[in-house]
Amino acid sequence: MDETIHRIISSLQTHHSLSSSPTPISSQTLSDLQTLLDNQDIQTLFDELPPNNLSPLSLLPPLTSALDSGPAHLSLSASKVYLSLLLAPNSPVFTLFTPMAFFSLLRSIRRCFKNPSFTPPDKRARKKKGGGWAGPSRNQARNAEDCQAGEEEGERREFDATVLFCVLERLELVLGLIHLDRFPDSLKSLIQTVAEIPVMAVEVSGNSGNFSKLCDLCSRILSELLRPEHGDQTVSAAEVLKSLSMSILLFKSQARAFGVGFVVKRVMGMAKDSGEIKKAIVNLPKYLVHKAPEKAEGRASAVEAIMEIVRAMEYEDQIGFVEYVVKMTQGKAQLRLLAVDLVPMLMMSCRDPLGVNLETGVENSWGLRCLEALVQRCSDATAGIRARALMNVAQLVGFLSGDDRCWEVLKGVMKSSGMGMNELLRKRCTDEKAAVRKAALVLISKLIALLGGSCDEDVLKTIGMACSDPLVSIRKAAVSALSEAFRTFSDDSVTKEWLHSIPRLIADNESSIQEECENLFLELVLERVTRAGHTNFPNSKSFSNDPTVKAKSFEREVEFIFPEGVLGLLREICNSEVMPWVKKICVSLGKKKRLKPKLASALQNIIRTSESVWLSHSRPIEKWTAPPGAWLLLSEVSAFLSKAVDWEFLYHHWKLIDKHEPDGEVRSPFQQGFADEDVVGTYESDSVNAHVKALRTLCKRKALTIEEADGLVKKWVHQLLSKASRVLDMFMSKDSEGNKDTGFLTPPTSGIKKGQRAAADTTFRLLSQAIIATYTIGSLVIVCPLADLKAIIPVLHTIITSGSSGPKLNKLPHPVDSIKQTAPSLYIQAWLTMGKICLADGKLAKRYIPLFVQELEKSDCAALRNNIVVMMADFCIRYTALVDCYISKITKCLRDPCELVRRQTFILLSRLLQRDYVKWRGVLFLRFLLSLVDESERIRQQADFLFGNILKGCYGFTLLSLHKIHSNR
Question: Which ranges carry the Condensin complex subunit 1 C-terminal domain (predicted)?
Answer without folding.
Answer: 422-530, 864-952
